[in-house]
Specification:
Elements (H helix, E strand, L loop, with lengths): L1 E5 L4 H12 L6 E5 L8 E4 L2 E4 L3 H6 L4 E4 L3 H13 L3 E4 L15 H4 L9 E3 L3 H17 L1 E10 L6 H12 L29 H14 L5 E8 L6 E9 L5 H9 L4 E3 L11 H4 L5 E8 L6 E8 L3 H18 L5
Parallel strand pairs: 1-2, 1-5, 5-6, 6-7, 8-9, 11-12
Antiparallel strand pairs: 3-4, 8-10, 10-13, 12-13
């Protein structure tokens, strides 16, 4: 199989290569694609060195799949051109997620909607992925009416420039700012550009993507995004109101039986999800599971995941694995 990775030298691009290796994805020929500013570089994959290339050359080489992680502008310009050439694109940007004809996929939840006609597939936002991993099995059993979610998102969700800002601030170095304020020893309720309704772009992704993935436009979602001085790993405090009552033992059983979820919930021993425990892992971790005593049929819980892995790279590779296994593609 020929596989292209677009944006291979970026934060997520490098993790994509790592995940491909860890999961033994069958890559006979890797085609690493970069922007013009990275031309001439080489990357290592499975102890081999590969020279990076540009989009036109990548399309000429006709990979079966191209995983994009190079930002929305690149995806809007180039993803359709790859797809038109018969290359299946898995796009990690926000460019195509809310297009009504483009599938938005979390493999454990809705991969079965993919067909041989899908040449452009959207990877959801990192904070959405970990949220719906928990919501989906609970919605299937109890029918969710409303979700209130506050996220505590790490700087890697913004990119390499934000990582440098945090590192510089911790070293006392004055450098380029990714954010309008210092992030070290600070946090701010601001993720993405503010919209006309007063919410940020990151917050509206949680609303719209959750509804699309769960195929449930009636679910009400009230989000607040907070950026925190954590390097890797997004956390979410979530309140869920169901249409019917539940019992906690069944909640634990449902979540325990859901592939890709791990329960960390032993308050007697101070065991609960934390970014420092999730970093480098692919599961979504859930804990602090408890009934909301202020509202009928409502549940509180806390969700953590590595935003670079399941929130981006791993989810994209899982989509590629599904395509290879269940959708007829020219390898």
């Amino acid at each position: 199989m020929k596989l292209a990775v677009v944006g291979v030298t970026g934060l997520v691009g490098r993790i994509i290569l790592k995940v491909l290796g860890e999961r033994s994805f069958p890559v006979d020929q890797l085609i690493p694609v970069v922007s013009s500013k990275s031309e001439g570089q080489s990357i290592q994959f499975r102890e081999q060195e590969f020279r990076v290339t540009d989009h036109l050359q990548a399309i000429r080489e006709k990979p079966a799949i191209a995983i994009f992680s190079a930002g929305g502008d690149v995806s809007r310009e180039w993803a359709p051109r790859y797809a038109e050439a018969g290359i299946r694109v898995i796009d990690n940007s926000s460019a195509w997620r809310m297009d009504p004809v483009i599938p938005l996929i979390v493999p454990e939840i809705n991969a079965e909607i993919l067909t041989a006609d899908d040449y452009l597939i959207a990877n959801p936002n990192c904070s959405t992925i970990q949220l719906v991993m928990v919501l989906a099995p609970l919605h299937a059993r109890y029918s969710i009416k409303r979700v209130v979610v506050s996220t505590y998102q790490s700087v890697t969700g913004t990119g390499a420039k934000a990582v440098r800002q945090l590192e510089n601030e911790r070293k006392g170095i004055v450098g380029e700012m990714a954010y309008p304020y210092p992030i070290d020893l600070n946090l701010f309720p601001h993720g993405g550009a503010f919209q006309e309704n007063g919410y940020t772009a990151e917050e509206m992704k949680l609303v719209n993507e959750t509804r699309k993935i769960l195929d449930a436009s009636s679910i009400m979602v009230s989000p607040t995004v907070v950026r925190v001085p954590v390097m890797v790993g997004h956390s979410e405090a979530v309140n869920i109101e169901f249409a019917r009552d539940f019992n906690l033992p069944e909640i634990y059983s449902i979540l325990s039986d859901t592939p890709g979820l791990t329960i960390q919930d032993d308050i007697q021993n101070n065991i609960y999800p934390m970014p420092i425990l999730a970093e480098g892992l692919d599961d979504v971790f859930v804990g602090r599971i408890r009934r909301d005593e202020s509202l009928k049929n409502a549940l509180n819980l806390f969700i953590v995941s590595d935003n670079l892995r399941k929130g981006a790279a791993t989810n994209a590779v899982q989509i590629a694995e599904y395509l290879r296994k269940y959708v007829e593609i020219d390898q």
